[in-house]
Each structure stands twice: as structure tokens, then as C-alpha cells.
Amino acid sequence: MSDFTFIPGGVTAAKGYSAAGDHLGIRKSRQRKDVALIVSEAPAAAAACYTQNLVMGAPLTVTKAHIADGCAQAIVCNSGNANTCNANGVEIAEGMSDLVQKYTGVKASNVIVASTGVIGQPMTLEPFTNGMEKLAALLAATPEGGAAAAEAIMTTDTIAKEVAVSFSLGGKICVLGGISKGSGMICPNMATMLCFLTTDAAVGAKVLQTALSAVVKDTFNMLSVDGDTSTNDMVCVLANGMAKNQPLEACEGADYEAFKAALFAVCERLCRMMAKDGEGATKLLTCEVSGADCEATAKTVAKSVIKSTLLKAAIFGADANWGRVLCAIGYSGAALDVSKVDVDFSSVKGVLPVCRSGAGIPFSEEAAKEILSEDEITVSVSLNAGCAAAKAWGCDLTYDYVKINGDYRT
Amino acid sequence: MSDFTFIPGGVTAAKGYSAAGDHLGIRKSRQRKDVALIVSEAPAAAAACYTQNLVMGAPLTVTKAHIADGCAQAIVCNSGNANTCNANGVEIAEGMSDLVQKYTGVKASNVIVASTGVIGQPMTLEPFTNGMEKLAALLAATPEGGAAAAEAIMTTDTIAKEVAVSFSLGGKICVLGGISKGSGMICPNMATMLCFLTTDAAVGAKVLQTALSAVVKDTFNMLSVDGDTSTNDMVCVLANGMAKNQPLEACEGADYEAFKAALFAVCERLCRMMAKDGEGATKLLTCEVSGADCEATAKTVAKSVIKSTLLKAAIFGADANWGRVLCAIGYSGAALDVSKVDVDFSSVKGVLPVCRSGAGIPFSEEAAKEILSEDEITVSVSLNAGCAAAKAWGCDLTYDYVKINGDYRT
Questions:
Q1: Residue of B63, B104, B155, B192 marked active site
Q2: ipTM confidence
Q3: Measuring CA to CA, how many Å separate A227 from each of A222, A270, A284?
Q4: For chain B, what are the domain ranges?
């Protein structure tokens, strides 16, 4: 049904997008790129989802206003400072947009602005004033341009995150690619950490928003590194239409489904990359819930399991402490019959059934150690009460998470 | 108004209570006591609050039935195994009660049963069958008896937790004392970790339950070590009337208030002891919220702040990363105006204002380091929107939390 192929690259994989990333001086270390710029050749349909945190970063306020008309053409994003809880935050975000206009010609009101880093740290426009011309000159419609942008938005991430797929709409080959960052303060709620997606498909702004909202619900909103919902979460997508497909203007039909499948594939893969690269993480932890009476129950249970700090620490220690899975199911808030719950742990090394009908069953500690020592662990929970299912992604809790966050500002 | 004095001791501080703790063989290490027994000379009024986790330990099911009549006379509690998610859990908990009856004469239906330790670990009645006679012989109405019981209920706790106060009801001197345990899997919800309280005051069962429920709401329910609500949380209180005060039969008046104040004092102090002794913790973290529009808002905000793993790690590192406080306030779910929020950090070394009207203000990093290096840190949040206030207790997140929970079962 859904037919897409993963291809190399990220935000410059689709036609008509150039990108750049460089060190402009927001970070102290000259070795680290700190501003990314992404530009579409033509104005594009735009859609976004934002954090639900009441404390919302100034860049998000500005972005919301800029894409209220469903149109955008450029994205500028700095790392090293979240531009949040600063008295002059909106002024700086507008200033960043003005500088993009000055050096790229894209209208300031078509610029999406994002910032990530320390909250409440004083910030000035100076690095942008001094460096935007140089950054704009680096814009390139190449894999290298996209990779530089992916690198420039990293904070405590240890790897840059790029994904792209090609797919077909009405006989035309389209491409959708994206980059994301996110390592700590991750528990998106109706939105996500920073994720920038570009496609050359022609998609109307409303359809784009509907597809994005639907996909975010099942991908980024099912991701948690530490239960902390950031103030600056945002995922946005630009669709510039340069693939010349018949524009998608309805939220139904084969083409809409094909587009949504491609969008889901990119977002899910970025999600897994973010979870596996969670602050201090050594393992990707996936919880797959099946047999739920409804989707809400399945999601609530899956998220509760991957958020349990006790289970996360046990997974770090490769300890098959399944009682913590039952405990997290029990306090999730979902209504369910605990005496019907089955739990398995699994990895590439095999499947380990540990609980049937809410009670423990004997298992080999050796087999458990072998399975849980892998770097991708799945906890499968069957509620045996219906047909709904859900998946959530997280990571283990390690010494390094504490180390990274014990002294983040310096 | 409220007039009470802290005195030494715990569950044997009040008249007519004896206690014991010993190694019966649930734990492997012979060095560690693993069963506590507390007995009142006379049947006592009894009240309890329980975990809201859907997965509820078998001992709690049995206890609920035993004190449905508002009366109890003994408490038996083992550590080392939670007796939860075991097929024969209720049978074992009833068996423990029967053995208490056999060796102390207290009716099995007047026994409160509790267990704490690993969930879903097979368990047998054998250690109790073999050891209960010896344990009953150790019962003593002495500080040593109470201390042995406090020690026997410890799991990853590093210190035993005992508190007692004396107070006066209608001219009669009464005493209320308690012990508690709890170090990890702590985020009580309408209940708490294990806490056993005894008083010689004469208090009707209904009044006792009302007072306990009210106090638990503001003490144990405002405590979080790791956001994980255990399956076995319980706080219970026995009132045997041996102080011979005029029995308290109404939830109003000076005597009721005096009793509630004494109960609050004991519970609050146990709460602080539990937070400070949280798994791996090096610091007690208190969040005091004031100026809220209502109590619910104040509580929601206070709990969100002390639960943030990012803030907890920053406090471990003595890093004044107040943006994480704002972030936790923002995602708490409470409706409030972020632009009015003020935040201070403080300890015995002084007060450090860090945020006014939702924006950062300059502060000395040296002063911050000095204040945050203490072992009791308070985060004061003023919402400037009303008169309601609340307090919540937690602790820092450290390497040792990960270490303890990476391999808890072995």
C-alpha cells in the first residue's frame, strides 16, 4: 500500500532546498556550529506543531505569527541559548528573521525561527548581525549543506539526525527529508523537540497541517527521555511543490495516504534516533502495547512504561525487573484488568516471557542478561482486552544522564 | 495554638505498644532484619490510606478487609519481597496474620499486613512459620523494640526513620509515634510508602480516618523521589486509648485540632526524612509555592518542580539552572500567568533571587554555588496571583540512584 524508499540526506534531499550551518558565536566553543539556515527556492506551504508548555519560547511565538497564513520559505535556528524567559526574546527572534530577509531575500514574515539551549540565559542579536551574511553565503543545495544544518542544531546530542524518503504522488517522484535534535528535556506533548522537515511535494497548507498533526501524535508525542516537556519544542514542515505533482488538497485518497506514510516513516525514524541518543542513553527502549480496549489506553500504558525511571535504570543494568513494568502499568491512570496482563522482554537475541495473567513466570536469568544486554530492547505488553495497539520510545537512565544534567549550564 | 513536643522514639513511644524486628529469612543476608511486628496491649481504633496503583499488593487487600471494622491490634510487615503479582499472595498474607494470632493472641482479623521489596518474586510462608514464635518472644515496649521494627522494614533506606511527639488532649498527656520506610519507587498518590503510626490517645475510628486522610494529603502525597507510585504504599495508625483522654469523636474543636497538629508534625518529619534518604540522594529538595489562586494550583506546581529529573540533576550538581524550574511550572498542567512568576533558591547559607516576573535577573554564580552546595535546598516559587500555598519534598538525582536501580533484584 504505502510505497516509499529511504534515501540518503535530510533537509536538502528534496528539490529546491538549500541549507547551511556555522559557528556564529552563540556558543563559546568555536569548534561548534550554532546556527542553521534552511531556504526554499520558492515560497512553500507550511505547517507546525508546538510545545504545550505554558512557558513558550519567544521564537515559537514569532513563528506562530509568521506561518499563520500557511506559508513560509526559510528556517533559522540557533543552539546554545533557548531565547526563553528573556525580556527581549521576541525582539531577538524578529531580529533574526529580519537578518534572514536582508541576506537571502526571503520575506521576514516567511521565516520560521527556533532556538534551543539554556532557558533564561541573556542573549543578544549581535552574533546574528555579525554572522548572518557569512551563513547565507554558505547556503548549498547539497548533502553537505543539509548535514551542516543538522549539526548546528545539536545541543547534548551525540549524533546528527537526518532522514529522507522518496515516494510517488500521481506518478511524480517526491522527496521528504528532515533533521531533528533532542537529547534531554524530552517528553513532547502535542509537539516535539526541534524537527525540520522539507518536501518538494505540492501539498496544501491545511492538508499539510492535518497530516503533520496526525503523524506527530503517533511518533514524537510517544517519545520520552526524561518526562520533561521542553519550552521550545517544535516540528515544522515546508512543502514547496517543486516535484510538480497534482497538489494535494484533500485529507483522503491514495495520494494523501502515500504522503502521510512517507511523513510517518521519516518522523518515526527520527524519533527512534532521538530516543537512542537520549542524554546519557546506552539503549533504545521501545514499549509495544497490544490488546488494549482503545487506543488511548494503549498509548497511556506504553508511555507510562517507557517513562518509569525505575524501569529505565533496570534496563541500563540489564536487569529483567518486570515488576517495575507492572507497577508502571498500574499507576498509568488507564483503566484495565491487571490480572490479564502479559509481559515479554525482547531484543535481537530473542524473546523472554516474564509475566502471564499478571503473575510472574519462571525464566532463565542468563537468557535475560543476554537479551537485555543488547542496545535495542522491546517491552511487549498485552492487555488481552481488545484490539488497540500503540508504541512508545524511550531510553535507559544512566550515570551519564546525571553527569550531563548536573552541570549543564557550564 | 497547636502544642506538641518532639520526643525520642517511634512506635513504642505511646503507652501500650510493644514491637520487635528480626531476621526470619526472607532476605538472604542474615545481617539484615526482615520482619517487623508491632502489637497493642488492647484493640485499637485503626485507619489507613493505600496506594492508588491499580496493581495493589496482596497484603493491602488483606489489610483493607481486616480493618473494615475500624479496629486493629497488631501490624506485621516484611521487607525483601513485596508479595505482589504472586498467584498465592493473599494466601501468604492471611497466613502471616494467622501466625501472629497463634503467637501473640491477637485475632487474625485484627492484624494489619504489609510487605515491601521486589515485585513479582516468588514467596513462601515458610520463613514466617519457622520464625514467628521467636519474633513474638522479642516483643518489647521499649525504645529498642521500636527501633528494631523500624530497621526491619528498611529496603534501600540508609537510615531507620522514627519520630514521636507528646501532646495534650483535655488535660491528658498523649503520645503519637511512627516509623516509615521508603527510598525509591516513591511518588505516593493518596497514600504513601509504608508508615506505621501508634498513639495512646483515645480517638474514634472515623475521626482517626478523617484526620489521617487530611494529613496524608499535605505530607506523604506531596513527596516524590522518582515519580514511581509503588504497588504497596500504605500508612496506618492505631489509637489504643491508653492515655485515658476523653475520646475524640468529632472532627472539630480544640482537641481534634491538637491531635491533627501532632499527627501532621510526625508525618511531615517522616516525609522529610524519606525525601532526604531517597535512593542515592545527597540533598533534600523542598519546593514552597505561595501566591497561588487556589491550593490545587499550588500543589500541582510544587509537585511538578520537585519531580523534574532535570532540576533534580542540576541540584545534585549545585547548578542554579532556574530555567528548569520555570519549565516544570509551565508543563505542570496548572493554569497560571508565567509572566508573574518569581523564583528564589535558598539554604542555610542564604537566599538567591533568580527570576522575577518570569524573566531572569543577574546573580552571583559564586553565591549560587555556596547556597546550593548545602544538603537542604528550598526552591521558593511565588505565583503572585492569590493567597494559596503548598509545599512538596523531593531529593536530587544522582549516580547512586542509577546504580541502586540498575541492579536492584540481586
A1: B192
A2: 0.73
A3: 11, 18, 16
A4: 4-276, 284-406
